[in-house]
Amino acid sequence: MAVWIQAQQLQGDALHQMQSLYGQHFPIEVRHYLSQWIEGQLWDAIDLENPQEEFKAKRLLDSLIQELQNKAEHQVGEDGFLLKIKLGHYASQLKSTYDRCPLELVRCIKHILYTEQRLVREATNSSSPVGGMMDSMSQKYQQINQAFEELRLLTQDTENDLRKLQHNQEYFIIQYQESLRIQAQLTSLSALPPADRQLREPALLNKRATVEAWLTREANTLQKYRLDLAEKHQKTLQVLRKQQTIILDDELIQWKRRQQLAGNGGPPEGGLDILQSWCEKLAETIWQNRQQIRRAEHLRQQLPIPGPIEELLNELGSTITDIISALVTSTFIIEKQPPQVLKTQTKFAATVRLLVGGKLNVHMNPPQVKATIISEQQAKALLKNESTRNDSSGEILNNNCVMEFHQTTGTLSAHFRNMSLKRIKRSDRRGAESVTEEKFTILFESQFSVGGNELVFQVKTLSLPVVVIVHGSQDNNATATVLWDNAFAEPGRVPFLVPDKVLWPQLCDAINMKYKAEVQSNRGLSEENLVFLAQKAFSSSSNNPEDYRNMTMTWSQFNRESLPGRNFTFWQWFDGVMELTKKHLKPHWNDGAILGFVNKQQAQDMLMSKPNGTFLLRFSDSEIGGITIAWVAENPNKRMVWNLMPYTTKDFSIRSLADRISDLNHLLFLYPDRPKDEVFSKYYTPPLCKQPSVCTGGVGGRGTGGGDVLPACLSVVWLHSVSCGRSDSMLDADGDFDLDDTMDVARHVEELLRRPVESQWGGQQS
């Protein structure tokens, strides 16, 4: 749950403290209307003490102002007009206040968020899930930062020790040279007369003995210094490995998982700024220690002293190289994934990024990245280091790109903007597998060197699975494959294995996430909606959610086998609902005007207890991407519920749902009891004409003529049919109302239009 939602529940002194955070410097209205956006930004990634970070702060300020302006533009109605003016004023005010000092905006918002989180935690005694989550996140970040501080101190300590070792060794060499000079003097004494030799030799021998004794002691000391330094480096590398594991195997993997779920409509994976800053700190620390180990090895070669140090230094050198190799290869990532449903002959884009590229100066000799499409089997072989003989499974145009360094952001990335899949080579399919179940991946690979060609890296990374299609009609089945893979793939899997069956609640989470994203709505699927879907998926009649908790759904049930009595799968039906809602029904779904997930019997049970003219909107069971109107009314024989033939995208491209409901005069109340004009009038468009002189086709249902019928026309045709006892002919085989079968009464329209409609319906509407 968002912090702002929790903050609004504060009381007493905590509420006053929260309110005091806001004012002209940052209005509370901005916090309220942009709460989700504000809490989604990485404010902590900006170092307020670093003037170089000002460009990041400026980008956040510009984004904040843009979000405010967008919010203002979408306000409608009388209250919306005032809010629109107010939000526009706040946008100008914030720009004026912080345009020259954007870091102050970051400081302000960081202070607000920190204080709100503290107040929420204190108010709930840290028992709130939000408080716990924030606590956990702040603790994790704190632990990472503490580890970096420990590494900084360890590296500084070994640097000091290395300098001390170097100084001592240099002095040792000087003394060693002195011993050689003494030895040379002793040797030269042989040329002197015996008397002179006896006079000078004792002093030189004594001096030589003193120096040699010192050299022996100092050699042992140097060896100890070297061993101590090596042990300290071992400890540093242990801390480095642990820190790198946390960042690469936990934080980066979690980011990739969020990126994968974002492909299903989950929240954005978030920026890479914090991760990059951590990876750069790792790279800097690793490189410093690598240079120290190399200097220690140079000192050893300069002054060889027998002992275990040579083996230790070799081991340290190998370890530090492994660590930096793991860092470089793991931080070559796909920042923007290619589309997971990939149509041939269609332009697509992707972005790859090297998180440590700037810190390691890779951009000094910009590497080229190549993109290749490979099959699932080729991906498996690649991860096993088996030779794939440079095979590919298709041809991608514009598949080479040079990495560019962006000075302002410090990022090194390659932007593939105009790739196109020219052709695809499919493998033999297994069993009932269709082409829309076959998974491929885009392989991005590059080669570059660091440290003046000291180390050469070959880096590769695989995109999320892609399904290749050649026609738009394959899109919905391909999307099902992608959705299942994104939702249920496990970290570290063999490409691209997913479970064949999952628990129903897991699937509910996945399709709810997808639904909200596609419809762009905060109104997701309710528990009642999910029970309806479970009934459809499992051909069950139970209304108890608990009955489905432990049930599993297989991939075949999801999108391979047709629903009972239908020629489409569960997913195809659900995808049709999403598409229809996204394109034509979004505002009505957001308003709560569409119940949608209700079957015909449920609709009848709900409406029969309501006044005549009460109606509801439900998705068609029998047609993909259809919505029908069910309403209760009297006919001469009995009171009953009617169902219009479903409307589809084709119908709504001619006339909107709101206008069609407006046209149907016998629809009075949206279930349970809301006057229809109260709900839909803001979406009505003016009628095309005022004189209803022709009736040629279906506003209410689907007509056979070439245009829309006028509002009164359909109402009268329907009323006439009922009053003439022709209601049965207006229903399809499933009891749905079909205007096609009422065209034989069109000849009566003119006569009926001359009579007051009220007299035809009389008191039956009550």
Short synopsis of the structure:
It is found in: Cytoplasm; Nucleus. It is built from 24 helices and 19 strands. By secondary structure, the chain is α+β, with helices and mostly antiparallel strands.
Show the helix and strand layout.
Elements: H1 3-7, H2 12-19, H3 28-33, H4 35-39, H5 54-73, H6 77-98, H7 102-123, H8 129-188, H9 194-262, H10 273-302, H11 309-330, E1 332-336, E2 341-343, E3 347-354, E4 368-375, H12 376-383, E5 394-397, E6 400-402, E7 404-406, E8 411-424, E9 440-450, E10 455-462, E11 467-469, H13 475-488, E12 501-503, H14 504-519, H15 527-538, E13 552-554, H16 555-559, H17 570-590, H18 600-607, E14 614-619, E15 627-634, E16 639-644, H19 649-652, H20 657-663, E17 669-670, E18 674-675, H21 676-680, H22 711-723, E19 736-737, H23 749-753, H24 757-761
Parallel strand pairs: 2-11, 14-17, 16-19
Antiparallel strand pairs: 1-3, 3-8, 4-6, 4-9, 5-8, 7-8, 9-10, 12-13, 14-15, 15-16, 17-18
Helix pairs in contact: 5-6, 5-7, 7-8, 8-9, 8-10, 9-10, 9-11, 10-11
Features of the shown structure:
766 residues, six-stranded mixed beta sheet, elongated, nucleus, activator, transcription, DNA-binding transcription factor activity, Signal transducer and activator of transcription
Spatial order of strands in the largest sheet = 18-17-14-15-16-19
DSSP strand content: 5-15%
Helical fraction: 40-55%
Reported for the largest beta sheet, the result is: 6 strands, mixed
Shape: elongated
Q: Gyration radius, to the nearest Å?
A: 37 Å
Low-confidence stretches: 126-134, 689-766
Distance N to C terminus:
45 Å
Number of strands: 19
Mean pLDDT: 83
The number of distinct helices, counting runs of at least 4 residues, comes to 24
Structural class: alpha+beta
